[in-house]
Amino acid sequence: MALFLGRLTPDTRSRDLEDLFAKYGRVTRLDIKRGTNSGFGFVEYEDPRDAEEAVHKLNRHVVNGSEIVVEFAKNNGRRAGDNECFKCGREGHWARDCRESGRRDGRDRRRYCELPYMSKYPPSACLRELPLSPLERDQACEEFIASAA
């Protein structure tokens, strides 16, 4: 299972991340892409449970002075082919037309409202559109991730 790593500093080395992520399980792949001011990368675990633990423990962890983002990668961290949907990996349609999530635009808003915290909002509500403070939005996202596991 692949994880996306965001907000990496330009001086972050593969070895730094290998040591950090290896604490949670066997890493099968680590790939860093560097930009001018920041970078991103992917780390892949052999066991999905190890990946879940790494997301839980390392998201917002400080590496080289920067708080990194660790979340599950779309399409398991691999680029889709020219004719593949990046959401489900099947050929013949684009992500915006993917029926995998039950909505034409690919978002499934029902899942947010299944959370106790979000139950006071209508099922059609989008998390970005709700009048939530940043702390409340973070809590809702954490609850959503925990409920999806």
TrEMBL record:
<dbReference type="Pfam" id="PF00098">
    <property type="entry name" value="zf-CCHC"/>
</dbReference>
<keyword id="KW-0694">RNA-binding</keyword>
<feature type="domain" description="RRM">
    <location>
        <begin position="1"/>
        <end position="75"/>
    </location>
</feature>
<keyword id="KW-0479">Metal-binding</keyword>
<protein>
    <submittedName>
        <fullName>Uncharacterized protein</fullName>
    </submittedName>
</protein>
<keyword id="KW-0863">Zinc-finger</keyword>
<dbReference type="GO" id="GO:0003723">
    <property type="term" value="F:RNA binding"/>
</dbReference>
<keyword id="KW-0862">Zinc</keyword>
<dbReference type="InterPro" id="IPR001878">
    <property type="entry name" value="Znf_CCHC"/>
</dbReference>
<dbReference type="GO" id="GO:0008270">
    <property type="term" value="F:zinc ion binding"/>
</dbReference>
<dbReference type="InterPro" id="IPR050907">
    <property type="entry name" value="SRSF"/>
</dbReference>
<dbReference type="Pfam" id="PF00076">
    <property type="entry name" value="RRM_1"/>
</dbReference>
<dbReference type="InterPro" id="IPR012677">
    <property type="entry name" value="Nucleotide-bd_a/b_plait_sf"/>
</dbReference>
<feature type="domain" description="CCHC-type">
    <location>
        <begin position="85"/>
        <end position="100"/>
    </location>
</feature>
<dbReference type="InterPro" id="IPR035979">
    <property type="entry name" value="RBD_domain_sf"/>
</dbReference>
<dbReference type="InterPro" id="IPR000504">
    <property type="entry name" value="RRM_dom"/>
</dbReference>
